[in-house]
Inverse folding.
């Protein structure tokens, strides 16, 4: 299945140039995802590209951060702010 995912321009560009190889979401998908179509949010409002999903990780934020931080494309502070009040993904 393919999904359209709204992503801020900064993160979308980093995903497409491979500086960010993980996209973090608070809700685990209900179906297997094969591709993500990247929709850049306002003010751009444009489909910028697509990426293939290799795997989906689910665990506590601490474990996810330790597994993905080297290719996260974000800071640790940004990550933990995003997952605030979330015990498990």
């Amino acid at each position: 299945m393919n999904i359209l995912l709204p992503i801020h321009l900064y993160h979308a560009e980093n995903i497409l140039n491979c500086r960010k190889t993980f996209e973090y979401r608070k809700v685990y998908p209900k179906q297997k995802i094969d591709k993500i179509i990247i929709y850049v949010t306002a003010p751009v409002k444009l489909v910028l590209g697509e990426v293939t999903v290799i795997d989906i990780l689910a665990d506590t934020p601490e474990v996810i951060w330790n597994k993905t931080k080297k290719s996260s494309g974000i800071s640790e502070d940004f990550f933990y702010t995003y997952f605030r009040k979330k015990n498990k993904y």
Remarks:
- The CA atoms of residues 20 and 73 lie 4 Å apart.
